[in-house]
Design a protein that fits this description.
This protein is an alpha+beta fold. The protein folds into 2 domains: 1-30; 32-152, Lipocalin. It has one helix at 2-29; strands spanning 35-40, 47-56, 59-67, 94-101, 108-115, 120-129, 134-141, 144-152. An 8-stranded antiparallel barrel has the order 1-2-3-4-5-6-7-8. A hairpin with a 2-residue loop joins strand 2 and strand 3 (59-67). The longest helix is centred in the first third of the chain and has 28 residues, at 2-29. It starts with a helix and ends with a strand.
Length: 154
């Protein structure tokens, strides 16, 4: 009887250890920009859009998947864009291109981010924070820029 109890106790300990390890790995897996994010208007704090960031061979790209503002026109196009995205629908528009993970850091750089409201592209830095629940998105030109915080949806 004592042997059965010890076996059950050991099995329970291994099960709890495996559960703790899997929970820890799940949290670590979230320390990436890959996923679905909500952008927030800096002035009104209103949800602005939903962005889907994907990884293609270590290079990130991000597209607008939803326009969330009440007054947003779902058929709007990027009138301000000056490259091949000019006149393209905002839904599905690629706004993040070429970001790569920096060695030994939870930071993705070397890419560009497009602001579809003014049509300008900026040097990009993506940094997951708060265990990956939020994403600092910095766009800059010659080191001068601004940082937005996006909120993970999934």
């Amino acid at each position: 009887m004592k042997a059965i109890f010890l076996t059950m106790k050991t099995t329970l300990q291994y099960s709890l250890a495996a559960l703790a390890l899997s929970l820890g790995l799940g949290a670590a897996a979230q320390m990436t920009p890959v996923g679905v994010w909500h952008t927030v208007d800096e002035k009104t704090q209103e949800l602005k859009s939903e962005i889907v960031i994907t990884d293609n061979g270590g290079v990130l790209s991000g597209k607008i998947s939803k326009l969330l503002r009440k007054e947003a026109k779902q058929d709007a196009v990027c009138d301000a864009c000056s490259d091949e995205r000019q006149g393209k629908p905002l839904l599905g528009l690629e706004i993040i291109r070429g970001a790569k993970k920096q060695d030994g850091k939870d930071v993705w750089e070397e890419g560009k981010i497009l602001d579809p409201e003014n049509g300008k592209s900026y040097t990009l830095r993506l940094t997951p924070i708060d265990g990956g629940a939020r994403l600092e998105v910095r766009g800059s030109v010659f080191g001068i820029g601004r940082t937005q915080t996006w909120v993970r949806v999934r």
